[in-house]
Amino acid sequence: MELDLKKISLRDVNDKLQNLDRKQNQRDFIITNPEGNHAICAGLTEEMSVTIKGHVGYYCAGMNQKAHITIDGNAGTGVAENMMSGRVHVKGNASQSAGATAHGGLLIIDGDTSSRCGISMKGIDIVVKGSVGHMSGFMSQSGNLIVCGDAGEALGDSLYETNIYVQGKVKSLGADCVEKKMDKNHIKKLNKFLKEADIKNLKGENFKRYGSARKLYNFKVDNIGNY
Amino acid sequence: MDGFYTFVVGTRKGFAVLRDEIACKPAVIAETDDYVAIASEFQAMAHLPDVNNAKIFEPEPGMVYSWGN
Questions:
Q1: Are A53 and A74 spatial neighbours (Cβ–Cβ below 8 Å)?
Q2: What is the reported pLDDT for B45?
Q3: Cα–Cα distance between A141 and A121 in angstroms, integer?
Q4: 3-state DSSP helix/strand/coil percent for chain B, to nearest 5?
Q5: Is A28 strand, coil or helix?
Q6: What is this structure's pTM?
Q7: Set of chain B residues whose Cβ sits within 8 Å of the Cβ of A114
Q8: Hey, are the CB atoms on B46 and A55 less than 8 Å from each other?
């Protein structure tokens, strides 16, 4: 079913997707003319497939549960923020704070992301086929952030337990973020994510893993400079 | 320059844009063969001709981008 945002208001489109008509049981939607509107497909809670044809604004697919949402364009700040489950696929670039605070699900970005990708992520898996901007993985707590390109300054600053995998160059690591050993299980897991994101030409073995040195977990006066 | 900003300066034949060092303020650029547009978000340029086929990107923090002279 096509939902044209030039003909139907954003509020009505979101309302329709948030409250699916069970009698019709229509679960395939195409949204046209998004024109950078904010909060498109926010708060979906059921299994459905939505393709958005064009560029979207802030917080697209925020709080998503179960739905599979494809953005055939670029996404603004906070795409898939606070996602709980499901899958969000951005075919273009994403702006700042992609996948912020998200608890679960899979976010795939074919292009690059701006700064703070995966900020405070709490269990989401993020695969970025391009590069990520500065302070990506900031204060991230759980999940996996996979970057096929390069990472900007202060990667993984003040992170807790997220695994960050980067294939390219890392401009600098943030406070308490260190390179960690890749064992067989990490490579296996990483290859699974690459497969899920339909990446065929890259191998998990060529990535480096970064994680928490766990030195900022408790307050130590020696670390005062890092707070 | 201190503080948070997206700074645009224009002349008769060109213009330049500079974003603050930590990318606090948003900025997005749309570039085509015919024009370059800068806004804080895509929505503001959604009505521009053929913008969906433009090259759309965010300027890197602390880097000067310029067109013309």
A1: no
A2: 94
A3: 6
A4: 10, 35, 55
A5: strand
A6: 0.94
A7: 23, 58
A8: yes
Helix (H) or strand (E) holding A88: strand A87-90
Nearest of A178, A201, A181 to residue A191 by alpha carbon: A201
Residues of B with CB under 8 A from a CB of A: 22-23, 26, 28, 41-47, 52, 56-58, 60-61
Please provide residue A87's backbone torsions phi and psi, each rounded to the nearest 5 degrees.
Answer: -150, 135
Distance of residue B51 Cα from the nearest chain A Cα, in angstroms: 10
Calpha distance A141→A113 (Å, rounded): 20
For strands B15-19 and B65-67, give the pairing.
antiparallel
Contact B46 A35 (CB under 8 A): yes
Chain segment A156-197, per-residue pLDDT in tens: 999 999 999 999 999 999 999 999 999 999 999 999 999 999
**CA-CA distance, A166 to A66, in Å (whole number)?**
27
Determine the pLDDT at residue A186.
96
CB contact under 8 A, A55 and B56: yes
Measured CA to CA, the distance from residue A61 to residue A58 in angstroms comes to 9
CA dist list (Å): B3 to A131, B6, B17: 26, 10, 15
Count the residues in chain B: 69
Say if residues A139 and A122 touch (Cβ distance below 8 Å): no
* d(C-alpha A64, C-alpha A71), whole Å: 14
A34: Cβ–Cβ under 8 A, 6 or more apart, which residues?
A: A5, A40, A52, A53, A54, A55, A56, A57, A73
Q: Characterize the bridge pairing of strands A208-212 and A177-180.
A: antiparallel
